[in-house]
Amino acid sequence: MDKIRLAKILFLISGILVVLDSVLEYFAFSYLESAAQSANTSALLPVNKTYATEVAKLKAAGPLLAALPIVGVISGIMLLLVGYMLGNGKPHIKAWAATGILFSLVSIAGNGGFVIGLILGLAAGVVALTA
Question: Among 53, 80, 113, 130, which residue's Cβ finds the most Cβ atoms within 10 Å?
Answer without folding.
Answer: 113
